[in-house]
């Protein structure tokens, strides 16, 4: 009986094994397997052939360390059609996995590679090379090394030699990665869900104060999709309001067109933007400026000395505005490198010939993006080289006595075995924004917010041991603390608005920043014409003079003395400019009277005191005070009331010490409307008190 049961179990095990083998049986694309659908087979084979062409182009570009363009995306477009027809083919699953590893969907590669090895346990040696990458993405570094060794052992000598620089790099990554991954840095990395979509979002650019974000997205837009259903990149913005980021808004033309634009570098004040597109045969760095609420047309190349017949892409300003850093894809050595160019003539926007930042930073693999910190001496960049733990990692290097230091990996979880790029820091170094195609996002490449915790607070123990022998003088034990290295950037962000002193309306003014010790002009910028906003980043160790100039207004100046070791500061201040231009008419919108009378109410005094200050600051200033009404009632009464109200304001100013011979009071009744009297709002606008500068 026992023997019979044992035989029965063996039979069941055999049947289970047989059914599993049947389930995992490879199905070739041949007519004998698809007798009922020969047309479908032909279509599938045609799609595979097209996919193979793009896969070959993509794999060769990888070997040559060139731009893979959209080769792998196009290969997948065709392969996935064939996959729907026959999902049980080992080779097709392998090809899909291969292609996915070089797209922003690389986290999907594992399931196809797993199916492929189940269907064909004895694959081509290249399978092990790609599967090693899959294991690397899973943080299975020991297994990853085993598969890369298996590839080296089984690959033909020519193929192994061709891939040697990659296998050597790969083994270096897998050996170094555990030390980095097992010691995560003190930071959170969170998906910025509100700005992301199921398509690619990348190249985040943030202002120094961390309140305005520009990004690029390939989500569906108003332009036509291409022949494989993909949309071009458009430029979007998001603002930090009430403690959260707003949903991204497409900035539209001229920044977003059908030419596949990419934003790459935002000036620290958010008033200028570096970008590039493939509108022509190659990519060139371009610049757009925020003029009021509108961005200027970036159609012109930034500089012919920067742009060439090669591709110049992701670029970054530096705070002194004398250099621009960018990615140069010259195809001379195959890989992309970081270059820089210096300004030669600012008035003519003439730049010097671009040159490499040097081999200390650039590698024989691709550098993907670059960002200059507002301190002016720290570079953050992404690279496939150095001690990457897989894909692109983000590194930093500092300029010390004209030489870049050895790049430092920013660590896990900022960096992962996936592609982590496009680092952009806020000036206070609390937040950074990156793009990554790691799993767990909304899809493809997503924008992530990095929140740095800062140095770990050390616990100080204070114990008093009441010893029998020393009760009078208890022993105080204070353990010695290890020195904590804190990498703080010392700078001040000076931000605010330039506004009219009386009306509080925004003004576009010139802000000039000077090093007081040398007289050197550090920066020369304008406040925004629509908002009056400005933002300046000032490295420490200098005494700065900041002058604000606007024709027709009094000169305004500020002074900042920033010691060398001062930490990050944020100064938020409105600069109020005093208008002294002859002919300027300013409405005193916060001057109020008792209904139907000329008596000033107390809530008028605040604005009138500002007018007193202006007249005291500019003692030669003379003004006409004018009263105005709407057309309700008789003109005679309106004329009388407007004259009395103008006289009332004059009397107040004289009472505050202003000489009467500098003041003229004039009532105009309803004769000078500034709006229609056909609406209550229009009539309210017409009821006003103004002053006009008659002499200065």
User: Oligomeric status of the shown chains?
Assistant: single chain
Ranges where pLDDT stays below 50 over 5 or more residues in a row are: 1-22, 460-486
Q: Which CATH top level class of the largest domain fits? A: Mainly Beta
Helix content: 25-40%
Quick recap:
This protein has 696 residues and is α+β, with helices and mostly antiparallel strands. It has four domains: 23-181, Serine Threonine Protein Phosphatase 5, Tetratricopeptide repeat (Alpha Horseshoe), CATH 1.25.40.10; 193-452, Neuraminidase; 491-577, Immunoglobulin-like, CATH 2.60.40; 585-695, OmpA-like domain (60s Ribosomal Protein L30, Chain: A).
Explain what the structure shows.
Helices cover 25% and strands 29% of the residues. The longest helix is centred in the first third of the chain and has 26 residues, at 38-63. Strand 16 and strand 17 form a beta hairpin. The chain has twelve helices and 36 strands. With 696 residues, it is an alpha+beta fold. It folds into four domains: 23-181, Serine Threonine Protein Phosphatase 5, Tetratricopeptide repeat (Alpha Horseshoe); 193-452, Neuraminidase; 491-577, Immunoglobulin-like, CATH 2.60.40.2190; 585-695, 60s Ribosomal Protein L30, Chain: A. Strands 2, 3, 4, 5 and 6 form a five-stranded antiparallel sheet that branches. Strands 11, 12, 13, 14 and 15 form a five-stranded antiparallel sheet that branches. Helix 2 runs parallel beside helix 4 and helix 7 packs antiparallel against helix 9.
């Amino acid at each position: 009986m026992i023997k019979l049961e044992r035989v029965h179990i063996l039979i069941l095990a055999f049947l289970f094994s047989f059914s599993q083998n049947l389930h995992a049986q490879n199905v070739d694309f041949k007519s004998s397997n698809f007798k009922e659908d020969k047309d479908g087979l032909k279509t599938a084979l045609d799609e595979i052939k097209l996919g193979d062409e793009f896969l070959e182009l993509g794999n060769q570009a990888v070997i040559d360390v060139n731009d893979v363009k959209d080769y792998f995306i196009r290969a997948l477009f065709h392969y996935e059609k064939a996959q729907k027809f026959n999902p049980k083919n080992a080779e097709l699953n392998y090809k899909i996995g291969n292609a996915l590893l070089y797209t922003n969907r690389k986290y999907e590669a594992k399931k196809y590679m797993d199916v492929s090895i189940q269907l064909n346990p004895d694959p081509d040696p290249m399978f092990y090379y790609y599967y090693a990458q899959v294991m690397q993405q899973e943080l299975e570094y020991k297994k990853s090394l085993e598969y890369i060794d298996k590839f080296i052992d089984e690959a033909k000598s020519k193929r192994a030699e061709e891939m040697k620089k990659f296998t050597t790099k790969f083994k270096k990554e897998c050996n170094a990665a555990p030390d980095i991954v097992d010691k995560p840095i003190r930071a959170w990395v969170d998906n910025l869900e509100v700005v992301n979509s199921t398509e690619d979002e990348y190249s985040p650019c943030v202002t120094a104060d961390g309140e305005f974000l520009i990004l690029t997205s390939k989500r569906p837009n108003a332009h036509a999709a291409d022949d494989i259903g993909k949309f071009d990149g458009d430029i979007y913005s998001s603002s930090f309001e009430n403690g959260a980021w707003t949903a991204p808004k497409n900035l539209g033309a001229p920044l977003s067109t059908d030419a596949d634009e990419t934003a790459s570098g935002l000036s620290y004040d958010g008033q200028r933007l570096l970008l590039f597109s493939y509108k022509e045969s190659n990519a060139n760095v371009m610049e757009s400026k925020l003029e009021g609420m509108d961005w200027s047309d970036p159609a012109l190349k930034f500089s012919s000395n920067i742009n060439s017949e090669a591709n110049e892409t992701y670029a970054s300003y530096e705070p002194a505005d004398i250099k621009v850093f960018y990615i140069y894809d010259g195809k001379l050595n195959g890989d992309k490198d970081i270059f820089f160019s210096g300004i030669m003539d600012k008035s003519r926007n003439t730049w010097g010939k671009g040159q490499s930042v040097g081999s200390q930073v650039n590698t024989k693999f691709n550098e993907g993006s670059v960002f200059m910190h507002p301190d002016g001496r720290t570079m953050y960049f992404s690279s496939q080289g150095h001690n990457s733990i897989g894909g692109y990692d983000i590194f930093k290097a500092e300029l010390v006595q004209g030489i870049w230091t050895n790049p430092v990996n920013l660590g896990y979880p900022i960096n992962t075995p996936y592609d982590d790029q496009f680092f952009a820091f806020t000036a206070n170094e609390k937040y950074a924004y990156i793009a990554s195609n790691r799993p767990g996002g909304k899809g493809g490449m997503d924008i992530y917010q990095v929140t740095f915790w800062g140095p770990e607070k050390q616990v100080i123990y204070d114990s008093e041991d009441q010893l029998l022998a020393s009760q009078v003088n208890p022993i105080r034990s204070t353990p010695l603390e290890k020195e904590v290295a804190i990498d703080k950037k010392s700078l001040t962000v000076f931000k605010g608005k330039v506004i009219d002193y009386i009306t509080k309306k925004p003004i576009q003014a010139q802000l000039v920043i000077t090093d007081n010790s040398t007289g050197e002009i550090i920066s020369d910028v304008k406040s925004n014409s629509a908002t009056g906003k400005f933002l300046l980043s000032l490295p420490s160790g200098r005494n700065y003079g900041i002058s604000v100039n606007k024709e027709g207004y009094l000169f305004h100046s500020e002074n900042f003395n920033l010691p060398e070791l001062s930490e990050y500061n944020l100064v938020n201040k409105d600069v109020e400019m005093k208008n002294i231009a002859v002919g300027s008419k300013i409405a005193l919108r916060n001057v109020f009277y008792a209904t139907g009378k000329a008596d000033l109410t107390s809530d008028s005094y605040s604005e009138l005191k500002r007018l007193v200050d202006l007249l005291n600051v500019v003692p030669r200033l003379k003004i006409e005070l004018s009263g105005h009404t709407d057309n309700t009632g008789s003109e005679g009464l309106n004329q009388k009331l407007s004259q009395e109200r103008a006289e009332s304001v004059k009397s107040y100013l004289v009472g505050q010490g202003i000489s009467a011979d500098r003041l003229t009071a004039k009532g105009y009744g309803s004769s000078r409307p500034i709006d229609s009297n056909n609406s209550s709002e229009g009539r309210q606008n017409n009821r006003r008190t103004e002053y006009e500068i008659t002499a200065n």
